[in-house]
Amino acid sequence: MTTGAEGMRLLWLATVVAGLTLLLGLSVAVGTRSVGWSDVVAALGGASGTIDQAAVAVRIPRTLLAGAAGVALGLAGAIMQGVTRNPLADPGILGVNLGASLAVVVGVAWFGITSSQAFIWVAILGAGVTAVFVYSIGSLGRGGATPLKLALAGVATSIAFASLVVAIILPRADIAGGIQSWRIGGVGGATFGAIGEVTPFLVGGVLLALLSARRLNSLALGDEMATGLGERVALARATAALSAILLCGATTAVCGPIGFVGLVVPHLCRLLVGVDHRWLLPFSALAGACLLLAADVMGRIIARPNELEVGVVTAFIGAPFFIWIVRRQRVREL
């Protein structure tokens, strides 16, 4: 027998799943060239005899990558907010995405890496090093790692890393074009091969994140209370953080740095299902996929016959949301 709260959560779950299903359909049907549903069905069945069916065949991997990246970023944002107890935590704001980007750019420019697997491993390493660096800087001084100090450390690190990326690629005309396009953040060049290579990392990150839900509930009570409940706080925080690093690094390697998804999604999901991470994490994953798919479809429609990369659209959505969160929170509380 379900309670009223659980009934509402199940209702919202059905709503989010229905919305995700609709957006998956729109993603393969809508673009610079609109396609009829009969061609969509035919293309899903393997047909590619007409221009419309060929267009759908190109959009299918793009749709899958957008959904997978949205799952990863939404989940990573919820994990980061839970680990740091910071309402401003997000892979972009804390500099993790830029750290992964810098690592990839250094690998391409200085070490000549070319394989997708190398990109993924280097991006995960960069994300991990950056997460440790930002948390260490934010922990200095009185009061430890407060939300405001972490946010400031992350923003400062992002600015510094972005400058380093520009400094590295400016003298390298041979790679500048491709890197600049990748840095915007998008899913337009998706292929089944790239999706297959990144899938094990994303699956591992998702499973590790979901297994951390109970521990994150304990951490939300405070370190002393969590320890009193028998939780190994350092291990719980490290395990959850590892899942976010895997998700951010792997996604950045394939799509480039896409910001604000991990900020917006967990806050909206808390309004729907509350703060219990056993519900919040799955909802953040599904809602993240919805947001990124919707942003990708909007980017194709707004700039027809061209398109806006999904990273640009999420920035337009997320920046006002970030300002609203900051204004909603008292600076003293941050």
From TrEMBL:
Gene Ontology biological process terms, A to Z: siderophore-iron import into cell
Membrane-related topology note: Multi-pass membrane protein
A cellular component annotation (GO) from this entry: plasma membrane
Main location: membrane
Parts of the chain that traverse the membrane: 63-80, 92-113, 119-138, 150-170, 190-213, 234-259, 279-298, 310-327
Gene3D superfamilies per the UniProt record, alphabetical: ABC transporter involved in vitamin B12 uptake, BtuC (1.10.3470.10)
MF-aspect GO terms: transmembrane transporter activity
Pfam families: FecCD (PF01032)
Keyword terms, alphabetized: Cell membrane, Membrane, Transmembrane, Transmembrane helix, Transport
Superkingdom, taxonomy of origin: Bacteria
Compartment list: Cell membrane
UniProt similarity note: Belongs to the binding-protein-dependent transport system permease family. FecCD subfamily.
Name of the protein: Ferric enterobactin transport system permease protein fepD
